[in-house]
Amino acid sequence: MKRAFKYRFYPTDAQAAELLRTFGCVRKVYNMALAARSEAWTLRRERVDYNATSAMLTGWKKTEELAYLSKVSSVPLQQTLRHLQGAFSNFWQKRAKYPTFKSRKKSRRSAEYTTSGFRFRDGRLTLAKMTDPLDIVWSRPLPAGASPSTVTVSQDAAGRWFVSVLCDDRPAMPTPVNDAVGVDVGVASLVTLSTGERITNPRHERKDRERLARAQRDLSRKAEGDGSNRAKARLRVGRAYARIADRRRDFLHKLTTRLVRENQTIVIEDLTVRNMLRNRRLSRAISDASWTELRSMLEYKADWYGREVIAVDRWFPSSKLCSACGTLESRMPLDVREWTCACGTTHDRDVNAARNILAAGLAVAACGDGVRPQRSTPGGQSSVKQEVVPPPRSRAAAQP
Ligand SMILES: [Zn+2]
């Protein structure tokens, strides 16, 4: 769920000028797009959509008299066109009156920035076309690890400045129980932890799979010509499949939330699914385990809650190495579930692998060398795109 947090802020003279310029351009673009839409409708009975107005904006910026529109950030201008689209949708669905022009005096002065139009780092918010962060009075903290998706700047009739920050609202994460855990993704168990705990595939999965297989057999028996029965059979296959996917995702969410909640650092193997699918015996288990999904959930949840995910090289011999003495076995076939090293330690294959993964990850963290993977951050999060100039110096802004 998204929640807005509103604060007062005190712009520098340059910032105030930039914002007032932006408000003016937002109003201008909104009014011109509204005029174009009204004209197209009254004269030609044509509906103009958001994309068309966006193309118009590009054209306007190229004309001499409207060239000033390209001086401000384009993000609030695009956003106001989206708002206009929303206003028209509401009108067509009879939820609102026909949109009206924004007036210089009466309309709310505001500009909305999406992630490409601002930068939020270490509790400091910097808008596009500005070098310094805003001097915000953090009257209440943002949720820990929050990453704002939209920032709206406004000025009220009394001349006071406000910034409204839209964030995902989620519960604060408690302090982790463990420093670090190693996670082995396996065949016999879904995952095995370096603590020795095994987490198996959910119990209902086998039953769901049987139902899916039955539905698929049923579908393949239906003759091509038998229209309605075939359609029903296809629907049953679709439902059975969706049920498996839903339940598995639900299970993975619970598992990854638990791992992130309990551990500060989570070490996993940097498996690439493409390589593993070549191994037919592993392929079923891997697709069942939805390895990619598990990893991406771990990574974005770790990002949210200030935990760390380290992936160790996938060529690292986690199964063949004795986690007690470090001896490397020459071969370790997949069907060997338990083995005894020359040092006398008897290992469970998966627990041993998880311990090795943990040790390798901690070594990586300690020396900071390059086995670390590229972190894939989810859509737009904390990624600052064009337009934003990094702040050259830190201002004494209050931290959230
Ligand atoms: Zn050993």
Q: Which labels suit this protein?
A:
400 residues, alpha+beta, 3 domains, five-stranded antiparallel β-sheet, five-stranded mixed β-sheet, 9 helices, 14 strands, flat, disordered C terminus, binds zinc ion
Give a short overview.
By secondary structure, the chain is of the alpha+beta class. It has helices at residues 13-44, 50-62, 74-92, 204-221, 227-262, 273-277, 280-289, 291-305, 349-367; strands spanning 2-9, 109-114, 118-121, 124-127, 136-137, 150-155, 161-168, 178-185, 191-193, 198-199, 263-269, 308-312, 338-340, 346-348.
What does the model show?
- The longest helix has 36 residues, at 227-262.
- The protein has three domains: 2-168, no CATH class; 178-311, no CATH class; 313-388, no CATH class.
- It has nine helices and 14 strands.
- It is 42% helix and 17% strand.
- The model is unreliable at 370-400 (pLDDT under 50).
- The protein has 400 residues and is an alpha+beta fold.
- The chain binds zinc ion.
- Residues 322, 324-325, 327, 341, 343, 345 line the site of zinc ion.
Give the overall silhouette.
Answer: flat
Show unreliable segments: 370-400
How many strand elements? 14
Number of helices: 9
| Structural class determined from secondary elements | alpha+beta
Summed up, the domain count is: 3
Specify the biggest β-sheet.
Answer: 5 strands, antiparallel
- Radius of gyration using CA atoms only: 28 Å
Q: What small molecules does the structure contain?
A: zinc ion
What is the CA-CA span between the terminal residues? 20 Å
The topology string of helices and strands comes to EHHHEEEEEEEEEHHEHHHEEEH
